[in-house]
Design a protein that fits this description.
single chain; mainly beta; 4-stranded antiparallel beta sheet; globular
């Protein structure tokens, strides 16, 4: 059974930081590119960051967010800094494979004073 479990979300003040984690099981983690997406109500899910053959970021988070992975722990992280209210969303982990891909259940990040 494939699972992707995100954690680390919560309420943070503008300018603050959070680190999201996504721990995977049920597939060969090292064979997959891993990514983070986010979604706010009424809007489409949007790309945030990806680590695979290369590391890429959405322009809106470049320089503030860092994606990294620990294959020994089957975990991908998203370090978020200088958070703004516009970063408020549900953040989803995504495993991007050659034939299959998987989504996590999401974790809420709220940036508010």
């Amino acid at each position: 059974q494939v699972t992707l479990v995100e954690s680390g979300g919560g309420l943070v003040q503008p300018g603050g930081s959070l680190r999201l984690s996504c721990t995977a099981s049920g597939f060969t983690f090292g064979a997959y590119a891993m990514a983070w997406y986010r979604q706010v109500p009424g809007k489409e899910r949007e790309f945030v960051a990806r680590t695979g053959a290369a590391i890429t970021y959405a322009d809106s988070v470049k320089g503030r967010f860092t994606i990294f992975r620990d294959d020994a722990k089957n975990t991908v992280y998203l370090q978020m800094m200088s958070l703004t209210p516009e970063d408020t969303a549900v953040y989803y982990c995504f495993a991007d494979g050659l034939f299959y891909n998987y989504w996590g259940q999401g974790t809420q990040v709220t940036v508010s004073s």
